[in-house]
Design goal:
heterodimer, A: about 220 residues, mainly alpha, 2 domains, 10 helices, B: about 300 residues
């Protein structure tokens, strides 16, 4: 029964869907796949150990953590907040777009901002609400929409630009997984092919946000 | 010295940073799982620092042990000393934009080293990280002791999530060794013909979105769907693997944008900003997610072949 081999995939899907402990789920999936394809315990542990060693590069981003820790304890996030809060006299959509640009550029340099906590709630959301309520008061529904769009803008910028950074865990995971699957690729080529998506995201989300302003003009 | 030997030095450095995290986790009296957490970082630190000299079977066993620790909820972030806001504010005023300089150097230097030398991308990241750290210490006038605490604080706060990508990549090795890709390819090709480039791209991209939505995690979906569909249906048909990987992952993110399973991104803001509509963030994201899915299918088709 070669279909039994797919048990690992099933374990991963169900384990993640039911929010079980992720580390345990992945280890269980690895063990189950090995057993289902008729490997001995010894052989499975061997592949597991060798696979982990061969994929150490995925965790290389740990090397960047001390530097990030140092600049963070010296106010990197506060400096970013100070910079963004200087934006004035713009519409809500434009505020979102400037933030989107900042988010994409900082992502490309591996500067991890905890966007939702550090910027969206305390900064971008109140700035956008103030900008949108210049002509008339906002309805509760509009307030909710602004909050949602602010949060969404952070996710767009974060997701579609993070692979521009060569030492990001996503890029390292892709390079290492492709190597494991027998089709090695370089990290720089992954970064290269991630550029179009980052640019396209900026254009279409930029347009989406400019249209967002229309509802506050009426 | 060969590239692998240089790389080994950086793995030893990583091991040392993890051992810092281990020491501080053991010392964290307020963490109910301090022993398990300390062991977790110690084991990882040892695997990175001296794993080369251990038999693979032992490393495999240690990973199973980490899985058990995690299952029994014995690995917890614990209490981490927060950044001192006052000092941070003051230093932010003084240093301003210079605080971003080390990160910029890190990103540019690692690309330059990997492109202009024959040391490769990984060694590039290693060298650039060390130089960026030294720059950061000089700019902020930080001493070794503070750097130690900044390092262990960052590593500990990453927690088990930091090791998940490497474990998923390891799972890819097991899948390859067991021939999972061939079985899924055979199963799916009973319904969809292998060899049609466009169909392969659509199948892979749509599967990435659906499975990311179900699992709430694009990294996990990437490991399984690329083994099961991406490689047999696109790469094996002559598709460029770097294009498939890069666009496959960001296509998965379209799924992340549309699922309540990705709570960190879609539910956290709802709670943070006390929004009335629980699905409000997702509703704002669906139009962009669907547009990006179509755009990326087209991009992948034209760039990969």
């Amino acid at each position: 029964m070669e279909y039994l081999k797919l048990i690992g995939i099933i374990i991963i899907i169900l384990g993640f869907a039911f929010k079980l402990d992720t580390i345990a789920v992945v280890v269980a999936a690895a063990l189950a796949t090995g057993l289902a394809s008729g490997m001995s315990i010894d052989h499975i542990l061997n592949i597991l150990g060798k696979g982990f060693m061969d994929n150490r590069m995925v965790s290389l981003f740990f090397l960047t953590l001390p530097m990030i820790g140092v600049v963070e304890s010296h106010g990197m996030k506060q400096a970013a907040v100070n910079g963004i809060s200087k934006i004035k006299n713009l519409s809500a959509g434009k505020i979102f777009n400037i933030y989107l640009a900042i988010r994409e550029v900082t992502d490309a340099f591996g500067i991890a901002l905890s966007g939702q906590v550090q910027f969206i709630r305390p900064l971008i959301n109140p700035m956008a609400q103030a900008a949108a309520s210049v002509k008339r008061d906002l309805t509760p529904k509009q307030v909710d929409l602004i909050k949602a769009r602010a949060a969404a803008t952070d996710n767009f910028g974060n997701f579609f630009a993070q692979n521009l950074f060569i030492a990001s865990s996503g890029v390292l995971l892709m390079a290492s997984t492709m190597k494991s699957l027998g089709h090695p690729v370089s990290t720089t080529s992954i970064v290269l092919y991630s550029i179009p998506v980052a640019i396209i995201t900026f254009i279409i989300v930029g347009y989406y946000n400019m249209r967002f302003d229309k509802q506050f003009d009426k | 010295m060969s590239v692998n030997n240089i790389l080994e030095i950086f793995y030893i450095l990583m091991g040392i940073i993890m051992i810092f995290a281990s020491i501080e986790s053991f010392r964290d009296k307020e963490n109910s799982a301090r022993v398990g957490t300390g062991l977790f970082w110690l084991i990882l630190g040892l695997i990175f620092a001296i794993g080369k000299y251990l038999p693979n079977v032992v490393i495999g066993l240690l990973i199973v042990f980490i899985g058990i620790l995690s299952l029994l909820k014995q690995i917890k972030v614990g209490k981490i000393k927060e950044v001192n806001k006052e000092i941070a504010e003051k230093s932010a005023k003084k240093l301003g934009g210079w605080l971003f300089f080390p990160s910029v150097v890190l990103a540019i230097l690692s690309i330059l080293i990997s492109e202009l030398t024959n040391l490769g991308g990984q060694v590039g990241i290693g060298i650039a990280s060390v130089i960026a750290l030294i720059l950061a210490m000089i700019i902020s006038k930080t001493d070794a002791k503070t750097t130690y605490h900044d390092s262990e604080r960052m590593v500990r706060s990453v927690g088990t999530a930091g090791i998940l990508p490497q474990l998923l990549a390891t799972l890819g090795v097991i899948f390859t060794a067991s021939g999972v890709g061939e079985v899924t390819a055979k199963t799916i090709s009973g319904i969809f013909p292998v060899g049609n480039h466009l169909l392969g791209v659509v199948l892979y991209c749509v599967a990435m979105v659906i499975f990311t939505m179900i699992m709430g995690n694009a990294f996990a979906a990437f490991a399984v769907i690329t083994a099961g569909i991406g490689v047999p249906f696109i790469v094996a048909q002559g598709g460029n693997p770097a294009v498939v990987a890069a666009l496959g992952m960001t296509t998965g993110y379209c799924g992340t944008l549309m699922t309540p399973m990705a709570a960190n991104f879609n539910s956290l803001p709802v709670a943070l900003m006390e929004m009335k509509d629980n699905l409000g963030v997702i509703k704002q994201q669906v139009p962009i997610a669907l547009s990006m899915l179509v755009i990326q299918i087209i991009l992948m088709y034209f760039l990969a072949f």
